[in-house]
Amino acid sequence: MSRSKSSKRWLREHFSDPHVKRSREQGYRSRAGYKLREIQRRDRMIRPGMTIVDLGAAPGSWSQVAAELTGPRGNLIAVDLLPMAPIPGVEFIQGDFGDQAVLDEVLRRLAGASADLVISDMAPNMSGVKGIDQPRAMALAELALDLAARILAPGGGLLVKVFQGAGCEEFRASLMAGFATVKTRKPEASRARSNEMYLLASGFRGQNRRSPD
C-alpha cells in the first residue's frame, strides 16, 4: 500500500528533525525529552531528591530526563498503558492511571509519602477530527490534575500537556484555583505546526486527597 502525501511529509519532517537526530545520539528514547529539558532550563522545577510521578511515560524519554535530574536520591514512578523498557532509578506501573487499581499501586509505591511533582506528556490517539480529539486531550489533562490533587505535597507542582482549543481556558482556571502560579510554555522542541503547549502549575495550595488505606 502506498503512503499518503501527509504520511510522506511526516516521515520527511521526522527524519530531518534535529531533535530526533540528537535523541538518537544522546540515547533518549524520543525527541520529547528535549521539551522537558527546555522547560527545566527555564523554570528549574526538577531538583535532586524529588519524588516525581510521570504519567503517560512510554517510551520513557521524560522519565530518562527526570531520573538524571533527580539523581540517586530521587524517587520516580512512571505510569503508562503501554509497556516501557526499564530505566535505572524508575519504577514502572503498566496500566490506566484512571483505574482505581493503578491509583492504589501508585499510592503503594509512594509508601505514605507525597509527590513533589506530577508530569504528563500524554496525548490521545489522534483521529484528525478536532471535535473528537480535543475533548479526549482535555479529559487526560483533567485526570492528571485529579491525580495531582490526590498525591501532591503542599507547594508541589504539575506540568501537563494541553492542546489549544475548547476546554483549555476552563482547565487553566482550575489550575489557578489550586496552585499559586500557572505558566504557559511552548518549547522550541515542539513542532511549530502543533497546537500543543504545556501548563506548569506551581505552589499546590491544598492538602492531597489521598484515599485512605
Question: What does the model show?
Answer:
With 213 residues, the protein is of the alpha/beta class. It is built from seven helices and seven strands. The protein has a single domain (31-204), classed as Vaccinia Virus protein VP39 (Rossmann fold). It has a seven-stranded mixed beta sheet, with helices on both faces. Helix 6 runs parallel beside helix 7 (168-178). The longest helix is centred in the middle third of the chain and has 22 residues, at 130-151. It starts with a helix and ends in a 9-residue tail after the last strand. The model has no long low-confidence stretch (mean pLDDT 87).
The count of DSSP E runs of length 2 or more, i.e. the number of strands, is 7
Order of helices and strands: HHHEHEEHEHEHEE
Overall structural domain count: 1
Uncertain segments: none
For the biggest β-sheet, the strand order reads 3-2-1-4-5-7-6
- In the CATH hierarchy, what is the architecture at level 2? 3-Layer(aba) Sandwich
CATH class: Alpha Beta
Counting helices, strands and paired strands, the structural category is alpha/beta
The Rg value, from CA coordinates, equals 17 Å
Largest sheet, in brief, is:
7 strands, mixed
What's the overall geometry?
globular
Helical content (DSSP H or I, runs of 4+): 40-55%
CATH superfamily: Vaccinia Virus protein VP39
Using the coordinates shown, work out and report the CATH topology: Rossmann fold
- How many angstroms separate the termini? 54 Å
Number of helices: 7
User: What is the beta-strand fraction?
Assistant: 15-25%
> Average pLDDT across residues?
87
